[in-house]
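Priority: low. Protein: TIGR00266 family protein. Input follows.
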Amino acid sequence: MNAHEIDYQIYGEEMQYVEIELDPQEAVVAEAGSFMMMDSNIKMSTIFGDGSNQDNSVLGKIFSAGKRILTGESLFMTAYLNEGQGKKQVSFASPYPGKIVPIDLSEKQGKFICQKDAFLCAAKGVSVGIEFSKRLGRGLFGGEGFIMQKLEGDGMAFVHAGGTLARKELAPGEVLKVDTGCIVGFTKDVDYDIEFVGGIRNTIFGGEGLFFASLRGPGVVYIQSLPFSRLASRVWAAAPKGGGRNKGEGSILGGLGDVLDGDKPF
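Result:
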């Protein structure tokens, strides 16, 4: 195997974390901000690019890091190497409520395509790159631009899904239509495109956006019930504006309740 062979255990229900067990000289790479805890004798180091070791030249490392800029990620990733004598553990946490999905790339024909913010961590040796869209509709209206992330190699990778996770196995020619933000990822053989919802009433009054994703099998698709963008928009909509309390908070009388509470003048 090119990637390090790691063991793992996922803990929790709604706010999960994954514990990676490293043998001596084994390593795992992760995005900044996902670290939770680790044993002693694990060395943490910042690496340029994704640490896949596919091209150790300076130009190769610069190109690897440049690909990460295109997906909106940092130039650097963090590697955690077990320099001790026995097995050691390092853990990474979910960024918001949802599920951590283990992806064995050796069982996915060496490639998995995912939303750019879904990747959590992976065995060192897994390549974290970009997947360019060759279709204009997907690039303009897919919610991810012309690019998504692709994970390549033969090791374990871990992605995060918001809310409840659905796993759909599509037969050849079978089509699944999904909100673009609800896609976590899919296997390499799934054909992915963007379609217009259609209909004047749907377009104006539907409230679900103008486009959805069309996923055609064969392959496996992972769907999330709570994309971070949807969670953030709901929180923003409910947040008090101008530093005051939210209208009607704690009272069924709405604005009148604020007056009675002394928060608003008559």
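DSSP finds five helices and 19 strands in the chain. The two ends are 73 Å apart (CA to CA).
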